[in-house]
Each structure stands twice: as structure tokens, then as C-alpha cells.
Amino acid sequence: METIAAAGVPVVFTSAGSPKKWTGFLKEAGATVIHVVSSAAFARKAEDAGVDAVVAEGFEAGGHNGREETTTMCLVPEVVDAVSIPVIAAGGLHDARSMLAALALGATGVQMGSRFVMTQENPAHAAFKQRIADAVAGETRLMLKDVTPVRLLRGPEGSFFDQVHHAEEEGADAQTLRELLGRGRAKRGMREGDLMEGELEIGQVSALLDDLPRAGQLVDQLVQEFKAFNTRQMAKGFFWKGLE
């Protein structure tokens, strides 16, 4: 955090802890602070802590997730109604349709994690990206809820995913799950491409991702498709003025 402040990083996203810990420090350094939340209650606490905006991340999202299992469609309007600061929607958002839906629910912007994993510039291993491209519906699951809730993509038979699933089915306690998790599994899976022993963190939307554009091309495509989709909705009597 001291390095971030010294470097003058203009926008900092925080999560997985109390926003009170670093928000004041970062804002004194001139940063805009945005905190990731999984409930309206956490959003109010983040606003009280002085953050500039929150990310309302729904149950569909990949990686570490909230225990509440509230979907993006339900979470975003709850958070929008609970706070007066801007709300960024996340979880399952990947195209113009989902962007429009999030904005219609009251979000002022969107965050796309899984979608941008599947870009050429993303440093994820090629084997992990190929596994995402091959994914079908129902192959991700929120696991390790008693330790650190995380949505994982199924690996080959006997993989870490299967090991955790078996342990949880057998009623393993938190300590046993911590020992099974160990350290460094996320790097091992996503950065090093170990599909057997690594964590493969990705959202439910992985079943819809099978291309690998450049990041800039993806942004241009999202904006163009949003405008075109919005135009079609205007013709039907429904529209959103965003991205004009």
C-alpha cells in the first residue's frame, strides 16, 4: 500500500476485508478507492468508510466470492438502493446485453473479469484459456465456503476440483480443507497451466466464452454492440442513454 501511495496510483480497488483499514490512507494519497462487496450491508459499511464507489459482485462471478450466494440480478438493485455512491456491477457480465441489463438495474458501470481473462494480453496460461474455451454450462462451482469461498472450473478427473468436492461431500472440516488448499494453487493453475493440481478460477459465464480477441478489440466490440443493441431497444420503446 505504501508503494501504491508513493507511485500515485489514481484508482485502487480493494476487497476481502474491511474497507476501513486502507481507505483513509489511500484517499490521503490522492487515490479514488472502490471496494468490492457481495451484499447491501457490506456496501453501506464501505460507504461509511469513505470509499468513492463499490463493485456489487454477484454469485456468478469467478474467483473469490461472497458466502451469500446472491446473484448479480438481485444484488445490483439492492446495493443501488442502499447507497448514494456509484455502483459498478460485476458477475456474469460479458457482452452488450449484460451491460445494458446492469445499467438498467441502476449500475453506473460494469466490471468484467472472466471476459478479459479470455484476451490475448491476459497472462493466464494457454492451457487454462483452452479449458475455459472448452467449458460448458454447469462446470463451475462455488467451493471452500468454510475457508475462502471461490468459484472454480472443473479440471480433469481426479483434479484439485474433484479432491475438494469429495472432501466437502465427506464433511471435511475447515482445517482439513485448508490443508488440502495449501498455498500457491491459483498461480499453479491459472498462470502455470497445471489443470490437475491448480485452482482454475473463472465465472459461470465461462460457458459462453470461446474466442480470444485482443483487449482493445474487445472494448471496441463491446461499445459498438452496445450502441447497436441500444438502438434496437429504442425502436421497441426501451433504451438506455449510456455510452452516447
Which features characterize this protein?
alpha/beta; TIM Barrel; 2 domains; five-stranded parallel sheet; three-stranded antiparallel sheet; 11 helices; 41% helix; globular
Question: What features would you describe in this structure?
Answer:
The chain has 11 helices and 8 strands. The chain is of the alpha/beta class. The protein has 2 domains: 111 residues, Alpha-Beta Barrel (TIM Barrel); 86 residues, no CATH class. The strands form 2 sheets. The protein has a 5-stranded parallel sheet. Helix 3 runs parallel beside helix 4, helix 5 packs across helix 11 and helix 8 packs antiparallel against helix 9. The model has no long low-confidence stretch (mean pLDDT 94).
CATH architectural category of the largest domain:
Alpha-Beta Barrel
Cα distance spanning the termini: 36 Å
- Which sequence of SSEs, written as H and E, runs from N to C? HEHEHEEHEHEHHEEHHHH
Q: In the CATH hierarchy, what is the class of the largest domain? A: Alpha Beta
Overall spatial form: globular
Number of helices: 11
> Main β-sheet: number of strands, strand sense, barrel status?
5 strands, parallel
The fourth-level CATH homologous superfamily of the largest domain is: Aldolase class I
Number of domains as seen in the coordinates: 2
Provide the gyration radius in Å: 19 Å
Strand content: 5-15%
How are the SSEs ordered, and which strands pair?
Layout: H1 2-7, E1 11-14, H2 23-28, E2 32-37, H3 40-48, E3 53-57, E4 63-64, H4 72-82, E5 87-90, H5 96-104, E6 109-111, H6 114-117, H7 126-134, E7 140-143, E8 150-153, H8 160-169, H9 174-181, H10 185-191, H11 215-235
Helix pairs in contact: 3-4, 5-11, 8-9
